[in-house]
Amino acid sequence: MNSSSASTTTLSFNNSFLKPVILDSLGIGLSIIAICKTTFMILLIFARRQLIKPKERVLFLLSLNMFMNVLIFACFTLNMFTSMLLGHMNPDRADLHDNTLRCRLKIYISTIALISALYSNTLQALHRLFRIVYHHRPFFYRNIYLYMFGIVVEIHLGAILQLPVLLPGHYDYEDYHCQVYLTNWRGILIGASCVWLPPVISTIIIYVFTVSFIRRNLSKLTMRQKKRIKRDFIVIRRILWLVVFIILFGTPACSTPIVYHLFGYVGWWANHVTWLTFISSFTGMTVVHTYFAPHIHVLLVKSFSGRKPATMV
């Protein structure tokens, strides 16, 4: 009887031990994929910069902006999932607990990268809008200093917009890292309002305005402009897919507090699912950007096939 009870207890312990460890390992794997993907693209752009034409510099700057921010965020998630894995495998080790100011600074800095990555989509949408609406004014879409300034603004937004989350103390220590408790509806609401919704709404508004402008003025455009806009639509479709990833990005974090307050229950896996969605969405953003961005496609073809494809930008 005692032997049977001991076996049941051991089996239960093994199941409760293995489940978070498996999800931790999955998070580490996805983070490594994101790091490898973005590092490869960053190094490729720098290594093959002699192939970049002057009129393409803004496009590659915006691509670098996205890849760099996703890389920084992926490094954070790799560190976070590694800490969680070590903690779940060694729950009695006190040195693995990091409920300190450093922990909160890490989440603050990583959230700057997170917000900047989200706004990088908005900057790309804005650049495409300027190419279409103000095609006769190259200053708006070829001036690299204008977009450098935009990136600086993006970083400052990342630092400022999360202050309503940081200063009231909504960042708490949970599961070997710092974050907003998923059951903290006030913190999640503030975070969604300041971090998630602004870039989503801004990008959608720019996308709708761009498409509306094209439909209103299609009959007035020359054949050359129509060919150019047809290429721009490829990028607009990419922007739409990026918006889908952004929406997916925030869905688990926003829905968990609602489920908790309706049913009084949050699964042990909710935290893992939220962060796995974060890193999966960002990885998906970089894949979509690489697939649909014509200038990246041209660079890849030139670098690995030696052919000279017709430029699409």
Number of domains: 1
Terminal CA distance reads 74 Å
Report the order of strands and helices.
HHHHHHEEHHHH
Find the CATH topology. Answer: Rhopdopsin 7-helix transmembrane proteins
What's the CATH H-level superfamily name? Rhodopsin 7-helix transmembrane proteins
Q: Main β-sheet, in a few words?
A: 2 strands, antiparallel
Mean pLDDT level:
82
Q: DSSP strand (E) fraction?
A: under 5%
Strand order of the largest sheet: 1-2
| Tally of DSSP helical segments | 10
**From the structure provided, what is the oligomeric state, counting identical versus distinct chains?**
single chain
Portion of residues in helices?
over 70%
Low-confidence stretches: 1-13
Radius of gyration: 22 Å
Question: How many strand elements?
Answer: 2
Outline of the structure:
By secondary structure, the protein is mainly alpha-helical.
What can you tell me about this protein's structure?
Its main location: membrane. Keywords: Membrane, Transmembrane, Transmembrane helix. This is G-protein coupled receptors family 1 profile domain-containing protein. It is a single chain. This protein is mainly alpha-helical and 313 residues long. It has one domain: Up-down Bundle (Rhopdopsin 7-helix transmembrane proteins), CATH 1.20.1070. The protein has helices at residues 2-47, 57-89, 101-133, 139-142, 144-161, 163-166, 185-217, 223-263, 270-292, 294-304; strands spanning 171-174, 177-180. The protein has a two-stranded antiparallel sheet with strand order 1-2. Helix 2 (57-89) packs antiparallel against helix 9 (270-292), helix 3 (101-133) packs parallel to helix 7 and helix 3 (101-133) packs antiparallel against helix 8 (223-263).
